[in-house]
Amino acid sequence: MHDLIKVGSGDMPSIGLGLWKIKKRQTSQVVQQAIKIGYRHLDSAADYGNEMEVGNGINESIRKGYCNREDLWVTSKLWNTYHSKEHIQKACERSLMDLGLDYLDLYLIHFPISLRFVSFDYRYPPGWIYGNEVEGDSIMKLDPVPLSETWMGMERLVEKGLVKSIGVCNYNSALLHDLMSYANIKPEMLQIESHPYLTQDNLIQLAKDYNIPVTCFSPLGALSYVSLDMASASESILEKSKIKKISEDTGKTPAQVVLRWGLERGTAIIPKTVKLDRLKENIAIFDFELTNKQVDIISSLNCNRRFNDPAIFCKESFGKFHPIYD
Hints:
alpha/beta, about 15% strand
């Protein structure tokens, strides 16, 4: 059912379930449904605020005989407030505790943004703000921790057996070049936003040149962001006439066409849904292929439209202009 992508010494299924924005009350059931129908790759993060529920779903799935732990690929991410060397292992161990796991298959630096530490006891997950939001003194506060220090802390997690592979998320080309110059353990994954409106061809090619596999989040584009007022419904890639035409020609849904495009580019994809029918639809993309012409047609929709941009959402939501992309 899955293509596999080599990540370090392991094999990661090329399609996974993204767990961002799934409500706590739904998470365990969604995870169990996904595993039952064949998903073996779960993409989680401390910041999503539902890792305890993800863990419940994993453990229930194992108890019910849907899978073994060894069958699953579980990714989590180091949040921005835990970049200092003294906090990295504690953050990883908190995710492991919440997920009910002994190890992670992959652990990523979530953003190349270091924020002021927020105590685990004070607020978890801490989000983007420092201080007490209720009392009105919350603010986004940066902390000047070098990314090299954070990466060295990630390497120690591998050495201690807490994680099998490490990588980065939301890095640009310059940061990737820099990381490769000092990493003792080379990054084993680059996770980025990519979809037909944001193909990121240069960055993906650079990663391939460094033998770093790529996972694309938000592979269906605007759909993940409409509810957050970070995109409009009119921006849906699934409504584009070129996508609908390929859908008709292949006998597949527009979503399946776009997801298949992601796989044809050699990247892994992590679509998110809470609906059982969509879970089944999203994973049923291994019985057809797109032609080179169809891949090129979809790629031609690129307009460099980035939905997940800290320069925009940090300023609008937290009063801090903080770009990480030019």
